[in-house]
Amino acid sequence: MINLKKIPSMDEILIQEEIKQLMVRYKRDYVVQTARTAVEEIRESLRKINTEIEKKAILTSIIDSIKLKAENDDKGTLQRVINGTGVVLHTNLGRAPLGARALSHMQEIGRNYNNLEMDLETGERGSRYSHIEGLLQKITGAEAALVVNNNAAAVMLALTTLAEGREVIVSRGQLVEIGGAFRIPEVMKLSGATLVEVGTTNKTYISDFSQAINEATALLFSAHTSNYQIIGFTSEVPMSELVSLGQKQEIPVFLDLGSGIISSLLPDGLKKEPTVQECVQAGADIISFSGDKMLGGPQAGIIVGKRKYIEQMKKNQLLRALRVDKLILAGLEGTLLEYLSAYPEENLPINKMLAATQEDMEAKAEAFLSILKEQLSDIPILVHNQTSPAYSANELLLELQKVALEDMVGGGAYPNHKLPGAGVELEFKHISLEQAAAKLRQGKLALVARRQDNKMLISVRTLLAGDELEIAAMIRELLLNPSRK
C-alpha cells in the first residue's frame, strides 16, 4: 500500500513534456480522460505489489500507458486482416473483398458531390435506386430491382409490403436460424405476416403448399438454408413446381436466395444451386440475395422481380429506414459493371479465388514457400523437401512445408463443398501455437490462419497480392522477438 502514496497527481502528470505533446495533437479533455484511466489501472496494479517502487518509475509507467492508449485509439479498431483461412466469404473477416473498380468508384463518389438523387438530364429530383436498377435488369433479366442495406432487410421489406396481416406459406424444413441469430420465423412475426408451416422437417411436397392455400394467403416463400442442411431421407419442393403453383393460384412466389449466385463462370462443383438469372427465368415473382457474398460487392440486400411488386416496396415507408447510402450504391454499381465485362472473373477477387484450380493453388503455395524461405534465410528454419542448413533441435525455430488443403466458399454458400487447395504448414519450435497465433493476430497487421494438430496452416487461396511478403515479415519479427508485444 506504500506505493499508492507515490502515485502522482493529475497536475503532475499533465505538466510532463510528453503529455504536453499529446495535448498538441489531441483534445485536452481526451488526454485527461485517458490519463485518469491509466492512473486507475496503475493503482490496481500497485495494490498487488508488496515491494517498494520509486515514484519516478510509477510516473514513467503512467506516461507510457497514456501514450500507448492514445496510439491505439488513434488507429481505430476496424483494421485490415490477412485471411489465411481459405474461407473465401469469411463472415467474421468482412466477406467479399471489393474489386478495384468498386473501390475507385466509392472513393470518387465519397470525396465529391454527386447525383445521388438528381436527374442530371432534367435537373429535377431523381431516385437513388435508379443508379443500380438498370444494371440489375440487364444482368438478371428481371423487370425491376431495389436495394436495401442487407438481405434480412430485403426479406423484411418484402414481407411487410406484400404480406402484412396475411399468411405466408413456408416449408417447415426452411424455418432456420442463420448467422447473427437471424431467424426466419422471427422475421415473419416482426413483419406482421402470419407464418403457415407446411410439411415436416425433412420432407415437404408441393401438395403441402397447395392444401395450405386459402383466401388469406399472400405469399409462397422459399428460403436458402445457409449452412444448415438435412442429408438422407429428404424431399424439398422444386422451384419450378412452387412457381407453377403460384401462377395457377395467382399468389406471388418469394425466393430468399441468401448468397445469390450471379456468375456462370464458377467451377463445375459450384453450379448446383440455381442462379438469380435462372430463378427469374423460372418465373419467381420476388427474389432477394446478398450483395457481399457470391456477388462480390458491398453489404446490401438486393431485390429483383416483377415490377408491380417492386413498385409497391418502393412506396413502403419502411424503405427509408432501410435505404443504402451513396458509398454502398457506388460500390455496388462498380461491382455490377464488372458483370457486363467479358472477363468478370479477372477483376472481382472472389470470382478469381473461387475459379482457381488445384494446379493454381499448388503453384501459389510453392511461390509462398519460396518467399518464406528467402525472407527467413538467416533464421534457423527447416523447409521440408528442400535443401536447408542443418540445425540442432535446440537451434531450430520453425519447420515449414507445402501441404494440400481443403478450402471453403463460406458465407453460408455451398456448406458441403470443399475447394481443393494448398498452403503452407508452420510448426513453431520454441513458442506455442496459441502464442504464435495470438501474436500474429494482434500485431500492427493481423493474420488469421487455421490451426490443426498443433500446427498453423496458411491457405493461399484467400491471400491477396502482396500478402505473402507481409506474412514473411510478421513471422520473422515473431521468431526474432517472441516476447515483444
Account of the protein in words:
There is one protein chain. The model has no long low-confidence stretch (mean pLDDT 90). The radius of gyration is 28 Å and the shape is globular. With 485 residues, the protein is of the alpha/beta class. A hairpin with a 3-residue loop joins strand 5 and strand 6. The strands form 3 sheets. Strands 1, 2, 12, 13, 14, 15 and 16 form a 7-stranded mixed β-sheet that branches. A 7-stranded mixed β-sheet has the order 3-11-10-9-8-4-7, with helices on both faces. A two-stranded antiparallel sheet has the order 5-6. The protein contains 19 helices and 16 strands. The two termini are 29 Å apart.
Give a short summary of the structure.
With 485 residues, the chain is α/β, with parallel strands linked by helices. It has helices spanning 10-14, 17-25, 28-47, 55-75, 100-111, 130-140, 151-163, 184-191, 206-212, 239-249, 276-282, 307-314, 318-322, 326-338, 344-347, 349-355, 358-375, 433-442, 467-480; strands spanning 81-84, 87-89, 144-148, 167-171, 177-178, 182-183, 194-198, 217-223, 253-258, 286-290, 301-305, 381-383, 398-410, 413-428, 446-452, 455-459.
Q: Mind sketching the topology for me?
A:
Blueprint: H1 10-14, H2 17-25, H3 28-47, H4 55-75, E1 81-84, E2 87-89, H5 100-111, H6 130-140, E3 144-148, H7 151-163, E4 167-171, E5 177-178, E6 182-183, H8 184-191, E7 194-198, H9 206-212, E8 217-223, H10 239-249, E9 253-258, H11 276-282, E10 286-290, E11 301-305, H12 307-314, H13 318-322, H14 326-338, H15 344-347, H16 349-355, H17 358-375, E12 381-383, E13 398-410, E14 413-428, H18 433-442, E15 446-452, E16 455-459, H19 467-480
Parallel strand pairs: 1-15, 2-13, 4-7, 4-8, 8-9, 9-10, 12-13
Antiparallel strand pairs: 3-11, 5-6, 10-11, 13-14, 14-16, 15-16
